[in-house]
Amino acid sequence: MKFYSGFSLQNESYLFDKYANTSEYCVSGFSYGAIKAFEYVQQQIALSKRVDTMQLFSPAFFQTQAEKFKRLQLMAYKKSEDAYLNQFIDSCFSPYDKKIVQHTATAVEELQELLNYEWDVEALNVIADKGVAIEVYLGGEDKIIDVASAREFFLKVATVTYIKNANHFLQIK
User: Fold this and answer.
1) What are phi and psi of 153, to 5 degrees?
2) How far apart are CA 43 and CA 11, in angstroms?
3) Where are the domains of the chain?
4) CATH number of 2-163
5) What is the pTM of this model?
């Protein structure tokens, strides 16, 4: 399995062991990493490489958010990267206890990409038409993304697993 980490994170794939497909032909990603997993699968399909499954765990989905929301996020990040990231991680685990996660260096450009990314339903359909199973996992208590809109969007092209009481990390209590 090839796994792409979320914004500012590394080695958090263990949090998704309960849902992860460990096949060498599975590509998965969490949050911002879901964007990277999707782009990687598009490249692999274009090269006629084998991909059986694409798993998107709490995919970053901000295309329904107002521009004001996105500007405020960027302003907060630029004002204090550490404070922003601490609040972000706290929100990812909310409403449950925070677990230890490893961090990596971040750049404002990554946050801009994450906030402004537009998922392409036609490109997702191309992947599905090539025989790739698309699985999306969403938590009902997710404080990061617009879960209702993400669910509605991804149901058009994927099997969506909605975990009612789960947070952004798909953790339940």
Assistant:
1) -65, -55
2) 23
3) 2-163
4) 3.40.50.1820
5) 0.96
